[in-house]
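Hello, quick one for you while I still have it in my head. Could you read through the record and tell me how the tokens relate to the sequence? No rush at all, and the record is pasted right below.
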Amino acid sequence: MVSKPGREAVLAILGTGDFFGESCLAGQPFCMKSAIAIGDATIMRVEKQAMIRLLRQEPAFSELFMTHLLSRNIRIEEDLMDQLFNSSEKRLARILLLLANFGKEGKPEPVIAKISQETLAEMIGTTRSRVSFFMNKFRKLGFLEYNGGLKIHRSLLNVILLDQEPRRAGQQAAAARAGGSAPEK
């Protein structure tokens, strides 16, 4: 999304089977968002009347679409709370975990698709230089690796779930890998 002064924000990264543009069903006269593929994608356009017909005549599709809408609404609420109450460092940790599918059904995918620091900055509402600083910090603390691909370690969850400062969570992760215990605060 781009504001009048030209400021950009990434509202979501969609995956296989996701919908976008559904706001037209609620009567929104203008499309306020755009979509850009960051990898190979196949997109199917469904005309508004065809979508309405599908929703009315196909209960299984209606249920799938309603699940999508509710999930999107929950994610937007979580993003807003994250933006209001968390530091940019914790917002970055959260978005990296989400991109790696931690906390979703199925197995986490610790190696995530190629994504630029600029895009991450737009997603969390900060600058690319801050993202670079935090990414290097997370790498030094053992939360992630990047050499051609970005690998997220489960220990990054400690920054979010235990509401720990990254340095303390990094000490605990290193101690766990070494088979010992982390130094007390």
Remarks:
- The radius of gyration is 19 Å.
- DSSP finds seven helices and three strands in the chain.
